[in-house]
Structures are given as structure tokens and as C-alpha cells.
Amino acid sequence: IATDEGGLVKFDNVTWTIYTTANSGLPTNRVSAVAIDHYNKLWVGTLGKGVGQFDGSTWTQHVTSSSILVLEVAPNNDIWADNDNGILAMRYDGTTWTKFYASNSGIREFDDICSFSFEDNIVWLGGSQGSLYRYDGSNWKRFDYKNSPLPEDGSNKCVVDSSGTKWITAWTGHLFSYNENPTSISEQLPLEYSLLQNYPNPFNPVTTIAFDLPYKGSVSLIVYNTLGEKVRVLADEFHDAGKHQISFDGSDLPSGIYFCRLQSGDYVRTIKMVLLR
Fold first, then answer.
1. Are 213 and 244 in contact (CB under 8 A)?
2. pLDDT at position 184, please?
3. CA 74, 270, 277 angle in degrees (round to 5)?
4. pLDDT tens digits for 196-221?
5. Residue 29 and residue 206: Cα distance in Å, rounded?
């Protein structure tokens, strides 16, 4: 939990812990944004001290002497942040911070970024001067009152849902939705999580495991033997919402019963598979 002048607060459902400059490597007690990346590293945006990163043991300070109000983690684990000092947005790819100005991006000068949201490899940025920006890694496109229903001025904040629809709130109190590629009825995303029975089953030595994700997120798909020992990691990465299939080749395993466990968010399910030679 970010606080202004009170540092960073953590609650693990039992104990409250307060991190300040006095008991940690926190750059400042004025924390304005907080995010967790896909490797469970903590990122904090601060007022006047840039970005801080905590890996569980060591604090690292990034982009010093800047004020950060918005900080988000992209699906590919890039860190996106706003900035001041003439910098309109920043992206950290794990090695380098890329700074976006009006001169090297499609962002209007003085248009402070209010939000970052993500759709696959596309970043949507909500601006403070009535604009919404789309950036695909190479090209920028700006939406404003001239080419969309967005109001002429004021801040826009945007989120993207699992169907690709952009939901934009405007300072006028209106809520807008926009979808560049609507999903047809025959291609509707799953409504719930599911791990289907592998096919064929019994199998020798290859079988297919299918699962449905109503939302994009991290997926763990692991095969265990009857002793509870991990024998194969089939997936341990970020997946988009939709229907997925993964092949399991048990040619190096003995005949017997195996269990495949899927976890994505709070959803956990296990199926029993029989390898029969």
C-alpha cells in the first residue's frame, strides 16, 4: 500500500509491516504507486525519488529525481511509468529505460499520462488532455475528440478487458467502450476456467491436455507421479484468455498413473492420466 510520507505498508493477512527510509532501502517515504512484476519483484513509484525496486533482499533505485504517479507491469514484464521533467512516459525492459517525449512518440506535449493498460503487445495510454494513445512497439495512434467520441479536454483512464474491449473513463463522467477487433459469436472466450481430461487416455506415449482461460494471466501446468514428485513442467508462463492445448510426451517415463495440475490465479484443478505401454 502506497502512502504519502508514511512509506510503504504490507499486510500478509496477519501482520502489518511498515517500510520507511529508516528501516529499509526505500528511496523516500513519499510513495505514490506500487506494482508487482511476474517474478514477484516489488516496484514503487515515488514523489521526487523516481522508481524503487525490491527483490526480497535488495533495494535498487531507478530514474532518480523524478516523480512517478502511475506504474504498471505489462504482460511481457516490461515496467511502464509516467514521469515529470518533460518525460511523458517510460518503459523498462529489464535492462534499459526508454523515455518517451513529444519528439520521439505520438504523445502530445504536456499531455501527462494517467493510465497504462495492455492488450497482448499493445500498450494503451490514457492522457490528461483528452487523448487516448495506442502504441504497438513501433507506431503510435492518438484518439481524441477529432476522431472519436472522447471529450475535448480532461483526463482519460483506460483498462482493457479479456475480450479486447477498451473501457475509458472521462472527466465528464462518461464511460466509453471501444473494440478494434470484436470477437465473433463462434469465437467467444470461455466463461470459466477448466482443465479438460487429456485425450487419448490411456495414452502411449503422447497425449493432449486442453484448458480454458476466461482471463489472461500466469499459468502453471505440471505433471506429477503417484509419489507426488514433479516429472514435467508443461507450462509456467503468461497465457492469453482463450482455449489452449499442450502436448505431453511420456516416452521417457514408465507406465503408470500420473496427475496433471493446472493453476491460474485462484483456480486449481488436477486430472488423472494413465500412461499404458
1. yes
2. 43
3. 115
4. 999 999 999 999 999 999 888 999 99
5. 55
pTM as predicted: 0.65
Q: Distance between CA 221 and CA 267 in Å, rounded? A: 12
Q: Give me the residue label for grid cell 511498515.
A: 18
Q: Could you tell me the three cell numbers for 172?
A: 465528464
Indicate the Cα dihedral angle 43, 221, 252, 245, nearest 10°. -120
Residue carrying C-alpha cell 502453471: 220
Asked whether the CA dihedral 123, 2, 93, 129 is positive or negative, the reply is positive
How far apart are the C-alpha atoms of 219 and 212, rounded to whole Å? Answer: 11
pLDDT at 169: 85
